[in-house]
Amino acid sequence: MHRAFGLTHEIFSYNLELPNEEGTRLSAEFVAFLNMKVETTALSIKHIAQMHCVNGKYFADLYRNKLSGYAEWCKNELCCGFYFNGANIGPYMSLDETCLSNGEVWTFLTNKDGHGGRGTLAAAIPGTKSDEIISILVGAMGKSLRRRVREVTCDLSPSMMLIAAEVFYNAHVVNDRFHVQQVYNEAVDEIRVDIRRKLIAEDNSRDKSEPPVTYSNGETMRQILARSKHTLMMAQNKWTDTQRHRANILFKYYPILKAAYSLAMELRKIFNAKISPTKAMGRMNKWYEKVMALGNNNFRSVIKTFRNHAPTILNYFRRRATNASAEAFNSKVKIFRSQMRGVRDRDFFIFRLVKLYA
Protein backbone atom coordinates (compact mmCIF):
# COMPACT_ATOMS: atom_id res chain seq x y z
CA MET A 1 0.00 0.00 0.00
CA HIS A 2 1.32 3.45 -0.95
CA ARG A 3 0.53 6.43 1.23
CA ALA A 4 0.54 8.99 -1.61
CA PHE A 5 -3.12 10.05 -1.51
CA GLY A 6 -4.22 7.41 -4.01
CA LEU A 7 -1.52 8.23 -6.57
CA THR A 8 0.68 5.49 -7.97
CA HIS A 9 4.20 6.77 -8.58
CA GLU A 10 7.78 5.69 -8.16
CA ILE A 11 8.39 4.10 -4.77
CA PHE A 12 11.01 5.63 -2.50
CA SER A 13 13.76 3.14 -1.82
CA TYR A 14 13.76 3.56 2.00
CA ASN A 15 11.41 1.15 3.79
CA LEU A 16 9.54 2.34 6.88
CA GLU A 17 7.82 -0.01 9.28
CA LEU A 18 4.54 1.70 10.16
CA PRO A 19 2.81 0.98 13.47
CA ASN A 20 0.08 -1.21 11.94
CA GLU A 21 1.48 -2.05 8.53
CA GLU A 22 4.86 -3.67 8.75
CA GLY A 23 6.93 -3.31 5.61
CA THR A 24 4.86 -0.46 4.14
CA ARG A 25 6.83 1.70 1.70
CA LEU A 26 6.40 5.41 1.02
CA SER A 27 6.23 6.89 -2.47
CA ALA A 28 8.76 9.54 -3.46
CA GLU A 29 5.93 12.07 -3.77
CA PHE A 30 4.68 11.40 -0.26
CA VAL A 31 8.19 11.61 1.17
CA ALA A 32 8.60 14.95 -0.63
CA PHE A 33 5.31 16.10 0.88
CA LEU A 34 6.46 15.17 4.39
CA ASN A 35 9.81 16.87 3.74
CA MET A 36 7.97 20.06 2.75
CA LYS A 37 5.82 19.90 5.90
CA VAL A 38 8.91 19.54 8.09
CA GLU A 39 10.56 22.59 6.50
CA THR A 40 7.46 24.81 6.79
CA THR A 41 5.93 23.72 10.12
CA ALA A 42 7.38 24.59 13.53
CA LEU A 43 6.67 21.18 15.05
CA SER A 44 8.87 18.22 15.90
CA ILE A 45 9.55 15.86 13.01
CA LYS A 46 8.10 12.92 14.94
CA HIS A 47 4.86 14.78 15.53
CA ILE A 48 4.53 15.77 11.86
CA ALA A 49 5.13 12.18 10.75
CA GLN A 50 2.65 10.77 13.24
CA MET A 51 0.00 13.25 12.05
CA HIS A 52 0.25 11.51 8.65
CA CYS A 53 0.26 7.94 10.04
CA VAL A 54 4.00 7.43 9.62
CA ASN A 55 6.35 6.06 12.27
CA GLY A 56 7.80 9.24 13.78
CA LYS A 57 11.14 7.87 14.98
CA TYR A 58 12.04 6.27 11.67
CA PHE A 59 11.02 9.30 9.60
CA ALA A 60 12.99 11.62 11.91
CA ASP A 61 16.10 9.49 11.25
CA LEU A 62 15.33 9.43 7.53
CA TYR A 63 14.95 13.20 7.35
CA ARG A 64 18.09 13.95 9.34
CA ASN A 65 20.38 11.44 7.66
CA LYS A 66 19.14 11.33 4.05
CA LEU A 67 16.47 13.82 3.03
CA SER A 68 17.49 17.14 4.56
CA GLY A 69 21.12 17.47 3.50
CA TYR A 70 21.94 18.30 7.11
CA ALA A 71 25.46 16.86 7.03
CA GLU A 72 26.34 18.90 3.93
CA TRP A 73 24.81 22.01 5.50
CA CYS A 74 26.94 21.61 8.62
CA LYS A 75 30.10 21.44 6.49
CA ASN A 76 29.22 24.44 4.32
CA GLU A 77 27.06 26.74 6.46
CA LEU A 78 27.87 26.00 10.11
CA CYS A 79 31.51 24.99 9.74
CA CYS A 80 32.72 28.11 11.62
CA GLY A 81 30.24 27.69 14.47
CA PHE A 82 27.74 30.34 13.34
CA TYR A 83 25.15 30.88 10.60
CA PHE A 84 25.01 33.86 8.24
CA ASN A 85 22.86 34.58 5.19
CA GLY A 86 23.69 37.82 3.39
CA ALA A 87 20.59 37.55 1.20
CA ASN A 88 18.46 38.33 4.25
CA ILE A 89 20.23 41.61 5.04
CA GLY A 90 17.83 44.50 4.39
CA PRO A 91 17.51 48.19 5.23
CA TYR A 92 15.66 47.57 8.51
CA MET A 93 17.13 45.01 10.90
CA SER A 94 16.66 43.89 14.52
CA LEU A 95 19.21 42.56 16.97
CA ASP A 96 18.44 40.50 20.07
CA GLU A 97 19.66 37.57 22.13
CA THR A 98 17.83 34.32 22.97
CA CYS A 99 18.57 31.47 25.35
CA LEU A 100 18.45 28.11 23.55
CA SER A 101 19.12 25.66 26.40
CA ASN A 102 21.11 25.26 29.61
CA GLY A 103 21.93 28.97 29.72
CA GLU A 104 23.46 28.95 26.22
CA VAL A 105 22.64 32.36 24.71
CA TRP A 106 22.72 33.09 20.97
CA THR A 107 22.53 36.43 19.20
CA PHE A 108 20.02 36.65 16.33
CA LEU A 109 20.10 39.25 13.57
CA THR A 110 16.70 39.42 11.86
CA ASN A 111 15.19 41.29 8.93
CA LYS A 112 11.97 43.19 9.67
CA ASP A 113 10.81 42.77 6.07
CA GLY A 114 10.69 38.99 6.60
CA HIS A 115 7.67 39.49 8.90
CA GLY A 116 8.62 36.44 10.97
CA GLY A 117 8.59 34.01 8.03
CA ARG A 118 11.18 32.94 5.51
CA GLY A 119 13.73 35.62 4.83
CA THR A 120 13.72 36.75 8.48
CA LEU A 121 16.82 35.13 9.99
CA ALA A 122 20.04 36.71 8.72
CA ALA A 123 22.54 35.54 11.35
CA ALA A 124 22.68 33.25 14.37
CA ILE A 125 25.84 33.58 16.44
CA PRO A 126 26.64 31.87 19.77
CA GLY A 127 27.27 34.19 22.72
CA THR A 128 26.73 37.89 23.34
CA LYS A 129 30.32 39.18 23.57
CA SER A 130 30.38 42.29 21.44
CA ASP A 131 33.99 41.94 20.26
CA GLU A 132 33.48 38.41 18.96
CA ILE A 133 30.16 39.13 17.26
CA ILE A 134 31.45 42.33 15.65
CA SER A 135 34.45 40.41 14.29
CA ILE A 136 32.20 37.66 12.87
CA LEU A 137 29.70 40.01 11.22
CA VAL A 138 32.34 42.36 9.80
CA GLY A 139 34.20 39.35 8.39
CA ALA A 140 31.03 37.90 6.87
CA MET A 141 29.83 41.13 5.23
CA GLY A 142 31.44 43.54 2.83
CA LYS A 143 31.15 47.30 3.29
CA SER A 144 28.49 47.59 0.60
CA LEU A 145 26.27 45.09 2.44
CA ARG A 146 26.78 46.85 5.76
CA ARG A 147 25.96 50.22 4.20
CA ARG A 148 22.66 48.80 2.95
CA VAL A 149 21.28 48.79 6.50
CA ARG A 150 19.61 52.09 7.44
CA GLU A 151 18.17 51.22 10.85
CA VAL A 152 18.83 48.66 13.59
CA THR A 153 16.51 48.25 16.58
CA CYS A 154 17.65 46.64 19.83
CA ASP A 155 16.97 46.72 23.55
CA LEU A 156 19.01 48.68 26.10
CA SER A 157 21.76 46.07 26.28
CA PRO A 158 25.16 47.81 25.92
CA SER A 159 26.48 44.79 24.03
CA MET A 160 23.69 44.84 21.42
CA MET A 161 23.98 48.61 20.98
CA LEU A 162 27.75 48.41 20.45
CA ILE A 163 27.36 45.61 17.90
CA ALA A 164 24.74 47.58 15.96
CA ALA A 165 26.80 50.79 15.95
CA GLU A 166 30.10 49.14 14.96
CA VAL A 167 28.84 46.74 12.31
CA PHE A 168 26.20 48.95 10.68
CA TYR A 169 28.02 52.25 10.86
CA ASN A 170 25.69 53.88 8.33
CA ALA A 171 22.50 53.01 10.24
CA HIS A 172 20.50 54.67 12.99
CA VAL A 173 20.51 52.60 16.20
CA VAL A 174 17.07 52.67 17.86
CA ASN A 175 16.32 51.65 21.45
CA ASP A 176 13.03 49.84 21.80
CA ARG A 177 10.47 52.19 23.40
CA PHE A 178 8.89 49.40 25.45
CA HIS A 179 12.21 48.58 27.12
CA VAL A 180 12.61 52.28 27.95
CA GLN A 181 9.13 52.41 29.47
CA GLN A 182 9.86 49.20 31.35
CA VAL A 183 12.85 50.83 33.09
CA TYR A 184 10.59 53.61 34.38
CA ASN A 185 7.77 51.22 35.34
CA GLU A 186 10.21 49.13 37.35
CA ALA A 187 11.27 52.27 39.26
CA VAL A 188 7.61 53.04 40.06
CA ASP A 189 7.13 49.48 41.28
CA GLU A 190 10.20 49.78 43.51
CA ILE A 191 8.52 52.74 45.27
CA ARG A 192 5.42 50.60 45.83
CA VAL A 193 7.50 47.73 47.20
CA ASP A 194 9.47 50.04 49.54
CA ILE A 195 6.24 51.46 51.00
CA ARG A 196 4.83 47.98 51.51
CA ARG A 197 8.01 46.82 53.28
CA LYS A 198 7.76 49.71 55.72
CA LEU A 199 4.13 48.82 56.43
CA ILE A 200 5.07 45.18 57.03
CA ALA A 201 7.77 46.27 59.51
CA GLU A 202 5.25 48.51 61.30
CA ASP A 203 2.65 45.72 61.41
CA ASN A 204 5.16 43.32 62.92
CA SER A 205 5.81 45.71 65.80
CA ARG A 206 2.17 46.76 66.51
CA ASP A 207 -0.17 45.28 69.10
CA LYS A 208 -1.75 42.19 67.53
CA SER A 209 -4.83 42.52 69.69
CA GLU A 210 -5.92 45.53 67.66
CA PRO A 211 -7.48 44.76 64.25
CA PRO A 212 -5.70 46.21 61.19
CA VAL A 213 -7.09 49.37 59.63
CA THR A 214 -9.31 48.75 56.61
CA TYR A 215 -10.32 51.33 54.03
CA SER A 216 -13.50 52.07 52.07
CA ASN A 217 -12.94 49.11 49.72
CA GLY A 218 -12.61 46.68 52.65
CA GLU A 219 -8.86 46.10 52.19
CA THR A 220 -5.89 46.95 54.36
CA MET A 221 -3.18 49.19 52.95
CA ARG A 222 -0.84 46.19 52.68
CA GLN A 223 -3.45 44.44 50.55
CA ILE A 224 -4.02 47.55 48.44
CA LEU A 225 -0.29 47.87 47.77
CA ALA A 226 0.10 44.17 46.97
CA ARG A 227 -2.82 44.25 44.51
CA SER A 228 -1.88 47.50 42.78
CA LYS A 229 1.21 46.34 40.89
CA HIS A 230 -0.49 45.87 37.52
CA THR A 231 -2.83 48.80 38.12
CA LEU A 232 0.15 51.16 38.20
CA MET A 233 1.29 49.84 34.80
CA MET A 234 -2.07 50.42 33.08
CA ALA A 235 -3.71 53.50 31.60
CA GLN A 236 -6.61 54.87 33.66
CA ASN A 237 -9.14 54.21 30.88
CA LYS A 238 -8.38 50.47 31.22
CA TRP A 239 -8.95 50.31 34.96
CA THR A 240 -11.90 48.38 36.32
CA ASP A 241 -14.07 50.02 39.00
CA THR A 242 -12.27 47.98 41.67
CA GLN A 243 -8.85 49.05 40.40
CA ARG A 244 -9.94 52.69 40.19
CA HIS A 245 -11.22 52.65 43.78
CA ARG A 246 -8.01 51.01 44.97
CA ALA A 247 -5.82 53.51 43.08
CA ASN A 248 -7.72 56.51 44.48
CA ILE A 249 -7.08 55.29 48.03
CA LEU A 250 -3.43 54.64 47.25
CA PHE A 251 -2.86 58.06 45.65
CA LYS A 252 -4.61 59.83 48.55
CA TYR A 253 -2.22 58.44 51.16
CA TYR A 254 0.93 58.26 49.02
CA PRO A 255 1.26 61.32 46.71
CA ILE A 256 4.68 60.12 45.52
CA LEU A 257 2.99 57.16 43.81
CA LYS A 258 0.45 59.46 42.18
CA ALA A 259 3.21 61.74 40.85
CA ALA A 260 5.27 58.77 39.61
CA TYR A 261 2.23 57.22 37.90
CA SER A 262 1.37 60.52 36.20
CA LEU A 263 4.89 60.73 34.78
CA ALA A 264 4.63 57.14 33.52
CA MET A 265 1.48 58.05 31.59
CA GLU A 266 3.14 61.24 30.33
CA LEU A 267 6.07 59.23 28.98
CA ARG A 268 3.62 56.89 27.22
CA LYS A 269 1.88 59.88 25.62
CA ILE A 270 5.20 61.22 24.35
CA PHE A 271 6.00 57.90 22.68
CA ASN A 272 2.49 57.64 21.25
CA ALA A 273 2.64 61.13 19.73
CA LYS A 274 3.53 61.29 16.04
CA ILE A 275 6.14 64.03 16.32
CA SER A 276 9.63 64.71 14.99
CA PRO A 277 12.76 63.82 16.98
CA THR A 278 13.34 67.54 17.63
CA LYS A 279 9.90 68.05 19.20
CA ALA A 280 10.25 64.77 21.08
CA MET A 281 13.55 65.96 22.54
CA GLY A 282 11.84 69.10 23.90
CA ARG A 283 9.08 67.07 25.53
CA MET A 284 11.53 64.51 26.86
CA ASN A 285 13.66 67.24 28.46
CA LYS A 286 10.64 68.64 30.30
CA TRP A 287 9.61 65.15 31.40
CA TYR A 288 13.19 64.42 32.53
CA GLU A 289 13.23 67.58 34.69
CA LYS A 290 10.01 66.46 36.39
CA VAL A 291 11.58 63.07 37.19
CA MET A 292 14.63 64.81 38.64
CA ALA A 293 12.36 67.05 40.73
CA LEU A 294 10.80 64.00 42.44
CA GLY A 295 14.14 63.41 44.13
CA ASN A 296 13.50 59.71 44.71
CA ASN A 297 16.49 57.34 44.73
CA ASN A 298 14.50 54.68 42.88
CA PHE A 299 14.71 56.80 39.73
CA ARG A 300 18.52 56.64 39.54
CA SER A 301 18.39 53.90 36.90
CA VAL A 302 15.88 55.95 34.87
CA ILE A 303 18.08 59.06 35.01
CA LYS A 304 21.15 57.04 34.06
CA THR A 305 19.33 55.40 31.13
CA PHE A 306 18.20 58.71 29.64
CA ARG A 307 21.61 60.31 30.14
CA ASN A 308 23.45 57.48 28.41
CA HIS A 309 20.97 56.62 25.64
CA ALA A 310 19.13 59.84 24.80
CA PRO A 311 20.15 59.91 21.07
CA THR A 312 19.20 56.27 20.44
CA ILE A 313 15.93 56.68 22.38
CA LEU A 314 15.02 59.72 20.27
CA ASN A 315 15.80 57.80 17.06
CA TYR A 316 12.50 56.01 17.67
CA PHE A 317 10.66 59.10 16.42
CA ARG A 318 12.25 58.85 12.97
CA ARG A 319 10.16 55.87 11.87
CA ARG A 320 8.52 54.82 15.15
CA ALA A 321 10.32 51.50 14.87
CA THR A 322 10.36 49.09 17.81
CA ASN A 323 12.07 45.79 18.51
CA ALA A 324 8.73 43.96 18.48
CA SER A 325 9.70 41.88 15.44
CA ALA A 326 12.77 40.52 17.25
CA GLU A 327 10.74 39.81 20.39
CA ALA A 328 8.14 37.99 18.26
CA PHE A 329 10.91 35.94 16.62
CA ASN A 330 12.30 35.08 20.07
CA SER A 331 8.83 33.88 21.10
CA LYS A 332 8.67 31.64 18.03
CA VAL A 333 12.06 30.17 18.89
CA LYS A 334 10.96 29.47 22.48
CA ILE A 335 7.67 27.90 21.36
CA PHE A 336 9.51 25.76 18.82
CA ARG A 337 11.99 24.75 21.51
CA SER A 338 9.12 23.62 23.76
CA GLN A 339 7.60 21.68 20.83
CA MET A 340 10.94 19.90 20.46
CA ARG A 341 10.95 19.16 24.22
CA GLY A 342 14.18 21.12 24.59
CA VAL A 343 17.32 21.41 22.49
CA ARG A 344 19.15 18.07 22.52
CA ASP A 345 21.16 18.70 19.35
CA ARG A 346 21.99 22.40 19.08
CA ASP A 347 23.28 22.31 15.51
CA PHE A 348 20.23 20.43 14.22
CA PHE A 349 17.95 22.87 16.06
CA ILE A 350 19.68 25.78 14.29
CA PHE A 351 19.29 23.87 11.00
CA ARG A 352 15.53 23.58 11.58
CA LEU A 353 15.35 27.33 12.39
CA VAL A 354 17.21 28.12 9.17
CA LYS A 355 14.80 26.01 7.11
CA LEU A 356 11.81 27.66 8.75
CA TYR A 357 12.92 31.30 8.93
CA ALA A 358 15.94 31.85 6.69
Helix content: 40-55%
Mean pLDDT: 88
Radius of gyration equals 27 Å
Low-pLDDT regions: 1-23
List how many beta strands DSSP finds: 8
Task: Briefly note the structural class of the backbone.
Answer: alpha/beta
What is the first-to-last residue Cα distance? Answer: 36 Å
Question: Count of helices?
Answer: 16
Order of helices and strands: EEHHHHEEEEHHEHEHHHHHHHHH
Count of all domains? 3
Strand content: 5-15%
Structural commentary:
The chain has a six-stranded mixed sheet, sandwiched between helices. It has a two-stranded antiparallel sheet with strand order 1-2. It starts with 10 loop residues before the first strand and ends with a helix. A hairpin with a 2-residue loop joins strand 4 and strand 5. The longest helix has 29 residues. With 358 residues, the chain is an alpha/beta fold. The N terminus is likely disordered. The chain has three domains: 58 residues, no CATH class; 129 residues, Nucleotidyltransferase, domain 5 (2-Layer Sandwich), CATH 3.30.420; 143 residues, no CATH class.
